[in-house]
Amino acid sequence: MIWFNSDYSEGAHPEVLRKLTETNMEQTPGYGEDVYCMQAAGLIQKACGRNDVDIQFLVGGTQTNTTVIAAALRPFQGVITAASGHINNHESGAIEATGHKVIALPGTDGKLTAAQIADYVDWQANDESVEHIVQPKMVYISHPTELGTLYSKEELTKISKVCREREVWLYLDGARLGYGLASRENDLTLPDLAQLCDVFYIGGTKVGALFGEAVVIVAEELKKDFRYNMKQRGGRLAKGRLLGVQFAALFEDDLYFKISKHAAGLAEQIKEAFERMGLHRFIDSPTNQQFVVLPDSICKKLREKFEYEYWQRMDETHSAVRFCTSWATKEEHVQALIEELERLLAEEERN
Amino acid sequence: MIWFNSDYSEGAHPEVLRKLTETNMEQTPGYGEDVYCMQAAGLIQKACGRNDVDIQFLVGGTQTNTTVIAAALRPFQGVITAASGHINNHESGAIEATGHKVIALPGTDGKLTAAQIADYVDWQANDESVEHIVQPKMVYISHPTELGTLYSKEELTKISKVCREREVWLYLDGARLGYGLASRENDLTLPDLAQLCDVFYIGGTKVGALFGEAVVIVAEELKKDFRYNMKQRGGRLAKGRLLGVQFAALFEDDLYFKISKHAAGLAEQIKEAFERMGLHRFIDSPTNQQFVVLPDSICKKLREKFEYEYWQRMDETHSAVRFCTSWATKEEHVQALIEELERLLAEEERN
Amino acid sequence: MIWFNSDYSEGAHPEVLRKLTETNMEQTPGYGEDVYCMQAAGLIQKACGRNDVDIQFLVGGTQTNTTVIAAALRPFQGVITAASGHINNHESGAIEATGHKVIALPGTDGKLTAAQIADYVDWQANDESVEHIVQPKMVYISHPTELGTLYSKEELTKISKVCREREVWLYLDGARLGYGLASRENDLTLPDLAQLCDVFYIGGTKVGALFGEAVVIVAEELKKDFRYNMKQRGGRLAKGRLLGVQFAALFEDDLYFKISKHAAGLAEQIKEAFERMGLHRFIDSPTNQQFVVLPDSICKKLREKFEYEYWQRMDETHSAVRFCTSWATKEEHVQALIEELERLLAEEERN
Amino acid sequence: MIWFNSDYSEGAHPEVLRKLTETNMEQTPGYGEDVYCMQAAGLIQKACGRNDVDIQFLVGGTQTNTTVIAAALRPFQGVITAASGHINNHESGAIEATGHKVIALPGTDGKLTAAQIADYVDWQANDESVEHIVQPKMVYISHPTELGTLYSKEELTKISKVCREREVWLYLDGARLGYGLASRENDLTLPDLAQLCDVFYIGGTKVGALFGEAVVIVAEELKKDFRYNMKQRGGRLAKGRLLGVQFAALFEDDLYFKISKHAAGLAEQIKEAFERMGLHRFIDSPTNQQFVVLPDSICKKLREKFEYEYWQRMDETHSAVRFCTSWATKEEHVQALIEELERLLAEEERN
Fold first, then answer.
1. Are A323 and A333 in contact (CB under 8 A)?
2. Chain A neighbours among D 320-349 (CB < 8 Å)?
3. Min CA distance, A235 vs chain C (Å)?
4. Binary contact (B89, A133; C-beta < 8 A)
């Protein structure tokens, strides 16, 4: 069985594991107060082009979203997201568990627009019952989105402007940031994010690490006492240096970007193959998640050899499914997938 | 100025106030452990046709919704509501502040359907990532709804069935319950609610009391330790007997139903007048809230003498507005409103 | 049966009720946006000697404590209280339900000292694991305390200084504030509180109102968006003017202070009688709550005619009990209580 | 510099790391649904002598305590702990952040007694204001405690009995469980815990793993929907198999117990050396944490070569400090520590 269902099927990139092994018996202080965390923070600051941003390391995505959002909001404030946003659907109500409403705005491609945000914030601010309506104080976006789509620099700039004019925090979830930045269609950089966002995170779990996310805090007000929030939400790893070691490995010699490029290239191969085969795409994703509509009959046969993510039913005989590539995906597996799909489609046609 | 903007513009029905005055200097135990609360509970049980339901008194609607919902759910569980539901829009995130997601389903008339509920609950239960999605464990509906519409007995029976089959609590917000039950189009009774719901409340604030809501707890499991929740949510009134006294007054000699009928009758007069004048209705409400679309020019002039609730913009020159009647509305005020509207419309036509 | 068990056994002072009745059928806007709330706020500002404090009205004490504390703190911050504080013992975990630790410091007379506060705050701030320990950011005191004791102006001034030096909010719970200010031993005034505290409340429920507490917000930072918090915690009364009407009645012609003096005078009579009879006092309270140690045999017989609050067991044959006076207590009832106690003690002695 | 300040200074036991490396490039499903988690769960069930207990893996201690406690309690319920308990002091209010009061009972050795628990639970249940007081519904203990002390089988059996009679959950925090079980003074076994507790966890972070805690759920009612809670509290690791792999390594061939014994043996050497040197012990700990009182002058000099944990000031010239051993502690380091201390004490004496 070959797995394309997610981008977290394997362990860590060998270089990351090597460094973990190499440092294993060293003694360091706990809770992220060690030299490796410092080193990793420095490398990330450099990659962001600013040394005035705070870098904090957390273990996983839900934990990071929860900690960042709960740290930023007062009790009656909420966070705006696209309805398809991860915090709205796949975190078991983690944000609400900290007391905050997730305000879901509709959309078709997983993205929010600056206009949508402006309209909503202005509507609430001007309503007669303003104090009876949750105050939108943060905008949550992800890059790439849940659907693999990307914000352009122009779009993100507009969103940032709209947020700053209204004193609303802009938070970008970068669980798959590497795969976004590595896309041919992407025109955003880490320094752009460090200018346009108030806080964002660079995902490690899906991009080469065993686990770990690096939070980049840009806004001064959000830096204060952030570690209290980390501890309270269960996010300060006792052996914090494990996160530092991993991110140091990822940000030395641009490993993070190189392995992301690998995944992006293979995703493009899959995308082009789907197009060549005349398959209907569910959404046009330029990143490591490829969504395609397949006949259920093909789906079933494909699953004898390949694991994919079932996405949703399209009609009585077709489903949308997702294939992910990652830093760990092997080119020969991609070839095998394409060949098998071609074979099955040809077989289908013959019948 | 005559006020039609809400159903809580005045104090209490004179009979309620009389009873408060009459008992004012009596000494009773606090926190609802007095004879008046017992008496009122008995009267409400009788009106519900069951003496095995628990009756608890709270001060206001948001407090009641918060207390009931937080008492019923485990942390990862959420409450389904129509997107227009009060808990979703007008309680400043009170439900989320207790840690629970408000799951908003779309709709046009303020109501949920049994099919919608079944589909959502079944979808979550069968999703591969079931534990990553908030578990829907309660359905919140209101009768009448925020838009003044009503559930038929058939509709509520279906919803109740769908909920019980799936072990989902059914909670009915009766902030305006009197005005719903008094509508000519209503075919539900208090005993019906006490059969079909797991918990509901009978609104006093909008129907004759100074303040106060009577929670009727039907499901055995929801009765246990409910008073702890009341206290924790700030809902146990020190002078609890004030609630008992008021509800005893309202449920003696059917006062609650009589004064609700008064409001319903006047709302019908308004509705018929709107139809006669050829005004476009925003929604077809058979209860004490009447929504109508008016030219902005009329709105403006009307407000010189009458207060109404601005609802929403319809197009560049028209708005939807709401007029409420209540137990306190005077027939001559309704007449004055109708005449003024007729006058303004005629004037408009002349120009 | 004559009740001395609490200070909320009756309804409202007749003058308050008169004003509620008089205004009953007036139409006003809801949620505290009416002229009566404005009028009451003005009167309270005047009594506080500052017109730059915000006045907000809430229904009850637990709701007020919850709303004020949750509004002021970030998630990892806690509130310091004397271990005997109301928020630590008798609010069913309402503060914790908003996510905050109640940090209880020991004491014998219901009071905190400036030194205790300074020591605790400094200890936390200087601990190596500072971010693993809840950050104390508010001090909660009550005046009078749960045990009827009072802070002197000197003590409160020191506490205020310690708090301001450390950027810790000082919040004073005034559920029985009238009875504190009216005590012969009190040397604090409302203007003092409005100088020394960051926020406090003037209790109405126990001092003449049907219900209601008036929050006085002094610190600029705590004023912002306070009404959102009120709504979210279920504390914005739909017919908000009921609170305005009552507090206007209480603060016109110093009614609040006059009726408090009445209670204070009767409490002194009880206190002196206890001393005359040679009874052991449980705590030396100069306010409307009098605590005394009685033989269980006397307790039992006394309860045939008088209700008191059982406080705690002292030894195998003695208990501490509490007697409260209030604005509503009748002098002849106090006389009857004293005579009955004298009679029972004499009877006891004979046996 | 040699570190004795904590038991989480190094990475993982080499055998654990070996297994992580060996399985690194395997593809498995995420979120703990893999064969390694199944295997580890089976091994732990076997070690507990019951296959009807549920095993769930989480990343760290605060996360585990938060998830277990929040999953078990209704909103108005609290958890009893010794005042020195970790949840009361060193988790930044993580438990309160889920809405629950931490009820701290006093004690001197980090332990609770059955009598203390019974008294508190019975007091609350019988108080007149029972619903105004947080309901104690869980008891939290740790083994070893924060102070390194142990419960005897007799003590734990009594606590368990008291809890079951009162329907109070018993939860044991086993962050250092291995070091407790390996102590010469311990008479408890994993099967004992699986009989006497309702839920407990076996700590991996401090006992050989990179990170990870294994929760053993005994009580049927606590098993239901536990994974929702894990996800909501940020505790479901995407690459969940990392936890399975590590615990499988630890519970194959009793590695967990062997490496714990190593730490216990070295701790005894330290303890005996302290006694030999005539040092005053701060507390009599039979486990891997050794607390001793040292002159500040010695402390200062010692720190030139050895890191320890400062515990608290004893008097003007003495402090209590803590030395930890772990699976990773080297015997020669212990010898070096002892020799250095002897040298410093001798030097001190000469002066």
1. no
2. 328
3. 11
4. yes
Q: Which of C329, C96, C107, C293 is nearest to C208 (CA)?
A: C329
Tokens representing D108 are 């001197």
> Which of C66, C76, C167 to probe by mutation at the A interface, max A CB count within 10 Å?
C76
State chain C's mean pLDDT as an integer.
Answer: 97
Q: What distance in Å separates residue C16's CA from the closest CA in chain B?
A: 11
Chain C partners of D101 at a C-beta cutoff of 8 Å?
93, 96, 102
Q: For residue D262, what pLDDT is reported?
A: 98
Query: Nearest Cα to A57, choosing from B142, D59, B176, C128?
Result: D59
Q: Which of A78, A93, A104 sits opposite B100 (nearest CB)?
A: A93
Q: Is the pLDDT of residue C142 over 90?
A: yes
Confidence check: pLDDT of C351 > 90:
no
Q: C67 to chain A: nearest residue by CA?
A: A75
DSSP code, position B49: T
Interface of C with D in 149-208 (CB under 8 A): none
pLDDT above 90 (res B328) = yes
The residue type at C121: V
Q: What is the pLDDT of residues C324-340, one digit of tens each?
A: 999 999 999 999 999 99
The alpha-carbon gap from D119 to the nearest alpha carbon of chain A, in Å, equals: 31
Do the chains contact at C101 and D89, CB–CB below 8 Å?
Answer: no
Does this model's pTM top 0.90? yes
- Kindly provide the residue ranges of all beta strands, DSSP E only, lying in chain B, ordered along the sequence: 2-3, 54-58, 77-82, 102-105, 135-142, 169-173, 199-203, 213-217, 289-295, 306-307, 309-315, 318-324
Residues in chain C: 351
Of the partner residues C10, C66, C211, the one whose CB lies closest to the CB of residue B26 = C10
Chain B closest-CA separation from residue A95 CA (Å): 8
- Per the DSSP assignment, residues forming a β-bridge with C306 are C2
Predicted-complex ipTM score? 0.96
pLDDT of C64 strictly over 90:
yes
Q: How many residues does chain A have?
A: 351
Provide the pLDDT confidence category of residue C175 given band limits of 50, 70 and 90: very high
Do residues B301 and B160 lie in contact, with contact meaning Cβ atoms separated by under 8 Å?
no
Q: How far is CA B112 from the centre of its chain?
A: 15
Q: Quick one: pLDDT at residue A351?
A: 80
Q: What contacts C182, CB < 8 A, 6 or more positions away?
A: C257, C260, C261, C263, C264
| DSSP codes, D204-242 | -TTTTSSS-EEEEE-SHHHHTTHHHHHHHTT---TTTHH
Question: How many residue pairs from chains B and C have C-beta atoms closer than 8 A?
Answer: 143
Residue B32, amino acid:
G
* A98 has a chain C CB within 8 A of its CB: yes
Cβ-Cβ contacts under 8 Å, A98 against chain C: 75, 99
Contacting B residues, span 113-152, partner chain D, CB-CB under 8 Å: 131-132, 135
The amino acid occupying position A192 is D
Other Cβ atoms less than 10 A from the Cβ of C222: the count is 20
Taking the CA of residue B23 and the nearest CA in chain D, the distance in Å comes to 25
Rg of chain A, C-alpha, whole Å = 21
Which position has the token pair 């705006």? A80
What residues in D contact B74, CB-CB < 8 Å? 71, 225
Task: Provide, rounded to the nearest whole percent, the portion of chain C with pLDDT above 70.
Answer: 100
Cβ-based neighbours of D303, under 8 Å, separated by 6 or more: none
Residues B153 and B187: their CA atoms lie apart, in Å, by 6
In chain D, which residues have their Cβ closer than 8 Å to the Cβ of B33?
A: none
For residue D135, pLDDT beyond 90? yes
Rounded to whole angstroms, what are the CA distances from C82 to A97, A333, C109, C111, C141? Answer: 29, 66, 9, 6, 7
> Predicted confidence band at B247 (pLDDT cuts at 50, 70, 90)?
very high
**D292: pLDDT confidence band, cut at 50, 70 and 90?**
very high
Question: What residues pair up with D313 in beta bridges, in sequence order?
Answer: D319
Q: Give pLDDT, residue A349.
A: 86
